[in-house]
Amino acid sequence: MSFPKGFLWGGATAANQIEGGYLEGRKGDSISDHISGGSRSIKRRFTRVIEADTFYPSHEAVDFYHHYKEDIRLFAEMGFKAFRMSITWSRIFPKGIEDEPNEAGLKFYDDIFDECLKHGIEPIVTLMHFDMPYFLLDHYQGFCSREVVRHFVRYAETIFKRYKNKVKYWITFNEINFACLPSGNLEVLGIYDDRTTDYTDPYDDLNKRYQALHHVLIASAEAVNAAHKINPDNKVGCMIAHVTLYPRTCSPKDMIKVQDLDHLFNDFCGDVQVFGTYPAYMKNYYKAHNIEINIEENDMDILKEGCVDYYTFSYYMSNCVSAEGDYETSAGNLLGGVKNPYLKNSEWGWQVDPIGLRYTLNKLNDRYGIPLMIVENGLGAVDELTADRKIHDEYRISYLKDHIKQMSKAVDDGVNLIGYTMWSPIDLISSSTGEMKKRYGLIYINKNDDGMGDYSRIKKDSFYWYKKCIESNGEIL
């Protein structure tokens, strides 16, 4: 099993799930700051006003804001070559509309990048990871307004210029294909009153939803162009939530339904961002569903000129699809489906499918022909802290090991895989439930769902396992 020399081993996080530091450094409100929660048993709520008696997990998260030096040292101890993270837009432009950026926010990320580079860790930076200044949602309905494209591009240009000599790998939008889901799926982000996060309108109006997505695709392409102009060495990627789909039976109707869902959810956004044009199948979808969006005169040129340099994706599980029949369903990352009788489920009902990762890598490599990077892959589980402050998470080691084995097979197949940042190097608040109980990390954070804890960092067994994996470039698993 051989990974290429210089393979980017590391871990991935999101600012709204780890940073905390709510309103510190003159930060403005983000959307995530308005989402309550903390337990699977209690529905999360979106509140227009921050309520004094309500618990908002993102306000403190796991306090990376004050612990980043300690955390990055731990990443370096594991041997990380890369750290995927995101920037909080409202730290840079508190409302999103200011003419000048917030220097305190810029300085915070300067310090983080300096700490990474000191330890030989390459930052991979996502510009927008399911969050934006709350003001832009409240006043413009987010990307439903073309005006927000202008604000995003100004933010992106500011970031590219500031960190020109510190960051080379960028990602524009996290799991951009989230916008292809109907509003009923918004519950995966804990929103139960039909409000939205960042890409879509508060109501599930197909025209507004796909208009907003068009604006996001334009914003991404303009950001790619800006990054290349500011520093020709910049590499900018897309990021897709890939949910691998299989037909539940060998019925041709199941196969056609797989193809339709693949096109709509897994393929569409990547096709636009890699090839720079709207695919024929999506034009037909718009026609069949009476979707009419406003495409401005130069938009197609912008998309064609703003193609990404590499393709990144998340992979947690797979699902089956059935056109007919009453089958047991399964849960998943953004998109659920029909239960696969050949797979086991995680504690949260996600189907564990390592071989599906090899299949997916080959599919993407054949489809796009550009470098690939897996930027999210991990297991959410309840970890037990023993009396002697140990965490024996063999289940997580097994999950990661099995997926890395299949990655190696894909590399042997000829896949151009350049990096793997597992989710997540440290425990963080879950984006789907807002709780700490669902832990992904290789490093345990002593914090509970109620916000109590001393935030101490404790190495799990998986920490030491991943360290050996990286040291051997994936040969010792």
Keywords:
single chain, 477 residues, alpha/beta, TIM Barrel, 8-stranded parallel beta barrel, two-stranded parallel ribbon, 16 strands
Condensed summary:
This protein has helices at 15-18, 64-78, 89-92, 103-118, 134-140, 147-162, 206-230, 252-275, 280-288, 299-305, 354-368, 394-413, 461-471, and strands at residues 8-12, 82-86, 122-128, 169-173, 235-241, 244-247, 310-314, 318-321, 329-330, 337-338, 344-345, 351-352, 372-376, 417-423, 443-445, 457-459. With 477 residues, it is of the alpha/beta class. Its EC number is 3.2.1.-.
Characterization of the model:
The chain is α/β, with parallel strands linked by helices and 477 residues long. The protein has one domain (8-471): TIM Barrel (Alpha-Beta Barrel). It has 13 helices and 16 strands. β9 and β10 form a beta hairpin. α2 runs parallel beside α4 (103-118), α7 (206-230) packs across α10 and α11 (354-368) runs parallel beside α12. 51% of the residues are buried.
Structural class: alpha/beta
CATH-derived architecture: Alpha-Beta Barrel
Q: Specify the CATH class.
A: Alpha Beta
Q: Characterize the quaternary organization of these chains.
A: single chain
Large-scale geometry: globular
CATH fold-level name: TIM Barrel
Number of helices: 13
Strand order of the largest sheet: 1-2-3-4-5-7-13-14
Pfam families: Glyco_hydro_1
Protein name: Glycoside hydrolase family 1 protein
EC number: 3.2.1.-
GO molecular function: hydrolase activity, acting on glycosyl bonds
Element layout with pairings:
Elements: E1 8-12, H1 15-18, H2 64-78, E2 82-86, H3 89-92, H4 103-118, E3 122-128, H5 134-140, H6 147-162, E4 169-173, H7 206-230, E5 235-241, E6 244-247, H8 252-275, H9 280-288, H10 299-305, E7 310-314, E8 318-321, E9 329-330, E10 337-338, E11 344-345, E12 351-352, H11 354-368, E13 372-376, H12 394-413, E14 417-423, E15 443-445, E16 457-459, H13 461-471
Parallel strand pairs: 1-2, 1-14, 2-3, 3-4, 4-5, 5-7, 6-8, 7-13, 13-14
Antiparallel strand pairs: 9-10, 11-12, 15-16
Helix pairs in contact: 2-4, 6-7, 7-10, 11-12
